[in-house]
User: Fold this.
Amino acid sequence: MLDSAKEGDVATRVTSDTSHEALGLGTEDLLSLYRTIVAARLCDEAAFRLNRQGKAPFVVPVSGHEGCQVGTAWALQRGRDIWLPYYRDVAVVLTAGMTPKDIFLGLFAKADDPSSAGRQMPSHWGSRRLNIISHSSPIGTQIPHAAGIAYAVKYRNEDAVVAYWFGEGATSEGDWHEGLNFSGIHKLPVVWVCENNQYAISVTQKKQMAVQDVADRAAGYGFPGVVVDGNDVLACYGAMRTAVERARAGEGPTLIEAKTYRFQPHTSDDDDRSYRSREEVEEAKHHDPLLRFGTYLKERGVLDDARIESVDAEVKAEIDLAIDEAWNAPDPDPSTLMRFLFAES
Amino acid sequence: MSEKNVVTAIHDTLHEEMAADERIVVIGEDVGARGGVFRITQGFLDEFGERRVIDAPLAESGIVGVAIGMALHGLVPVAEIEFADFIHPAFDQLVSEAARMRYRSNDDFGLPMVVRCPWGGGVHGALYHSQSIEAFYGHVPGLKVVVPATPADAAGLLRSAIRDPDPVLFLEHKKTYRLISGEVPDEPFTVPIGEADVKREGSDLTVVAYGLMLHLCLEAAQRLADEHGISAEVVDVRTIAPLDKETILASVRRTGKAMVVYEDNRTYGAGAEIVATIAEEAMFDLDGPLVRIGGPDVPAMGFAASLEHEFMPDADLIFDRMLELARF
Assistant:
């Protein structure tokens, strides 16, 4: 749990009971949450391995972020709500319904890659079927899209909630301000989720902003900002669930800031040794959301070591199969290069 | 048929489309209570309400970005950028997002949306209320860019733009708004995007233009016929992207002489692409030099009348160059 709110803080901090009982989560929920986090972690490890083998030219790692991603994404409903992930959100899209095979089809840029059929870099998600909105590489440009989608949701009297995930670096972009401002003016059903890992590639938060908490910025847009420990899966779920309920009730947006850490370099092309010490990274790993959640589940009698091993083995087998299938899937046909610039009726 | 100016033609068409289709919303600065700075959306707020006529915060990237989001979820937004000169903050949204959405998602997502904006000079708009922007966006695959010059074309192209499944940048030359009037069909009709139009038939030379320059070319062509008996064909480009090469090339092949007139800075302007197209594909049909008239390469026109006049190609200049080419 985080510190209780200090005098003068603008953002609120999550201090309520975040035990799974208090949050209404049962054993099956906990096992699914755990399994999704493990899947994201193992996808990451496999992707880096494939990168080193020369089979995957570009990898965007997730390790360290899985807790806040799965925790927040879990509060949305497939088939009802709308997901706008950014490139680090492997665990968000797994929660939204993508499979490990989908992820590796994208990693290998195959024709059946559901996000872009091999047109975009890996980890640029999108699937109309799953309500995952296509995104680009520029940072923050999707923020006004999320606001516009939320406006359309409200306009059409739907009860969907829109959620957008981003890093703290995105909050420096003009589009971030423009999108949040619009969402506040119109009290839109949207949740803004900041995965604050303290680095935008190499630029530290201190050089990115003069405030300690991104969540403080919500006050400028007229809706609540909440700080949550991003390595605490259940705390993230609790904060998101409250925000989703608020959005669904027509009470407007919430900005959630999940404080977390990225264990790997920014991408497979980055070398983080140039901007952060190994000691710092190793220290951060003591707060690994996967280990922490596993410990919680063991303490609460939901899992034991044997069960953890069997879950890990099951997920690993699933991922190994996904990699084989994706690797053997067809490449995009070069003759499709000119297609779908515009609608083909 | 009704006689209308360009503003009224656009106003009436947008109004008719909104009345017929509840998915259509307008969003922009001053589009609500003020009815748009050029009165395109006058009366819309009272009739359609705040839900559909959205006075946006003063943030152009946000306006286009929010419109993209609306288009992603079942609405058909018609965004207004108050002046073309202010569209630059939305460049990223138009180029990285709107233009690429369908392509990057392999047809999974499309954006039925229109971005309208007044462009062009001749109204004492100086450096920041006179700019031409068509070349920036004509260069971008995935965007359709239209530049109607007459009330009927504005109405027909706007209806096509609103009904198009992909993003259309709809450029309205602000000097034509109240200067140019013409007959507009009363029944809903469309002008296809991507088709140029021969506005005046002729046999001695071809002049290709769009926007305000089209009208100056028509005026010069009339004088050329009256004073010298020379027959000039005037082709209205109407759509910058995708460019209707066939209509332009067919005319040039028929007359054997070609001149392209545009108001934008000459270098890398849309007219440069048209000239290049003619040079590539109709070189051996030409009986004279390819002539290009564009604005000078300075940052739009000065506020002083003398500076504005010096910048803008006028009918006299166009007339002289047409005569010279005809006599070549």
Chain B has 13 helices and 14 strands. Residues 212-228 of chain B form the longest helix (17 residues). Chain B has a mean pLDDT of 98.
